[in-house]
Amino acid sequence: MIRPGDHLKEGLNAILRHKLRSALTLLGVVFGIAAVITMLGIGTGAQRTVLSEISGMGLRNILVESAKPEVRKRVSGTSRSHRSRLNYGLTFRDADQVARSLPAGCLVERVHQAGQPVTLLGKKSSAVVLGVSPEWFEIMMARRLDGLLFGDLQAKGVHPVAVVNPAFLEANPLPDGGLGRMVRIGSSYLEIRGVAEVPAYASRPHVFLPYETARQILGGVQANFEAGSTEYTYTELGRMVVQVADEEMVAGVSEMIREQLTRTHPDGDFAITVPLELLRSKMRTQRVLNLVLVSIAAISLLVGGIGIMNIMLASVSERVPEIGIRRAVGARRADIVAQFLFETATLTLLGGVIGVALGYAAVPLAGAFMGWQGIITPSAVFLSLGVALATGLLFGIAPAVRAARLDPAEALRRG
After folding, report:
1. What mean pLDDT do residues 169-173 have?
2. Cβ atoms of 219 and 238 closer than 8 Å
């Protein structure tokens, strides 16, 4: 009986005897496995990025914010001055009604959004300004990086202090880290007291003020200049965050809030974001995308497998005399099948290893192009190598069986 090691040695010798042909045969498997690794790496990276971003909003949270209605109803204005004011969005009464309707254990936190220009060291910034409470930082899973966050004292009165996020410091680099610096918002100056990372607001520069401070010194009026006219907008309450006691309550509470606000805001000047529903939707989309990407890689492997089958069939035709001699000296059909299967398995595994290496090089490049970090997991590597081996065995069966069925006498005569 021929040992597996002998079959492996024969397979390597066959590959080395026809280097160019073996290399060309490997290309389909190499690119197919590289595609599998790249697709899985990008898919895993995208999934973790989306999961991190949406989870940062709080899976038990419901985010409600004011939104400009499609049909704008100006409540005041004169044609002479070309000025108008648009009142829209949430009100304090909305927040109170929602709070009264919530089940036990739920919270409502108000957020004031100020549309005022931000200036630091004479340089304008595109930062978003939000007035928040100390509890808001807890609900939004904020992490203090430096300095102090707001306490109950700052929450109750007007205190010119601010907390910024890392994106603000990246956009406005300061040698001392920013603590103690004065930032101008509108016509008011506030001292930067802390730096906090808020996952839901990590991508853009943000400045966080105590809620009452933002209301009192910044107000809710914003001026927009367009085509020679000035439009003033007023929003009493920019946003509110509702946190429920359990994720199972999210769907029901969000629908209740939507029904309440629809009755009091027929113009639809509000928007509701449910991170849990958004996460589930993104995950469904990601699963479909992964299926499409893996299908594309599978087509490449199919082409590579067909190429392997053709090459192995040609190899059987070339090695008819060798097969006849082996059968004449006592080799069984099973030995011939094993010999050719080991040869195709060795060929595809070699292509799989090269493909994995190519995939490792391609994932960072593809991730940089698509805007997120690709992640290659050990399971993806083993899956890819397993697929390569399965491709070799699947497409190597037909040539192996054909070789084993050759009549020894006929094979010797043809030699």
Report:
1. 87
2. no
Quickly state the pLDDT bin for 28 (edges 50, 70, 90): confident
**Residues belonging to the chain:** 415
Report the pLDDT value the prediction gives residue 4, as an integer from 0 to 100: 59
Compute CA 203 distance to the chain's CA centroid, rounded to the nearest angstrom.
14
Whose structure tokens read 């290496």? 357
Tell me which residue of 210, 264, 241 sits closest to 97, measured CA to CA.
264
Instruction: Give the separation between CA 58 and CA 39, rounded to whole angstroms.
Output: 29
| 5 Cβ neighbours under 8 A, 6+ residues apart | none
Do residues 178 and 118 touch, judged by C-beta distance below 8 A? no
CA distance 170 to 182: 17
Contact 4, 348 (CB under 8 A): no
In this predicted structure, the answer to whether residue 224 has a pLDDT above a threshold of 60 is no
Helix, strand or coil, per DSSP, at residue 318: helix
In whole angstroms, give the CA distance from residue 393 to residue 40.
Answer: 23
pLDDT class for 130, splitting at 50, 70, 90? very high
pLDDT tier at 82 (50, 70, 90 boundaries)? very low
Question: Angle at the Cα of 126 (from 123 to 128), degrees rounded to 5?
Answer: 125
CB 307 within 8 A of CB 22: no
Query: Please, which residues have CB within 8 angstroms of residue 205's CB and are 6 or more apart in sequence?
Result: 125, 126, 127, 128, 164, 165, 167, 168, 170, 171, 172
Question: Tens digit of pLDDT for each residue in 268-327?
Answer: 889 998 888 887 877 787 778 778 877 777 787 787 788 888 877 877 777 777 777 777
Report the C-alpha gap between 100 and 256 in whole angstroms.
Answer: 12
In 10 A of CB 201, how many CB atoms? 19
- The residue type of 321 is P
Share of the chain above pLDDT 90, in %: 15
Gap between the Cα atoms of 42 and 372, Å rounded: 8
Helices (H), 4-126: 4-17, 19-55, 92-101
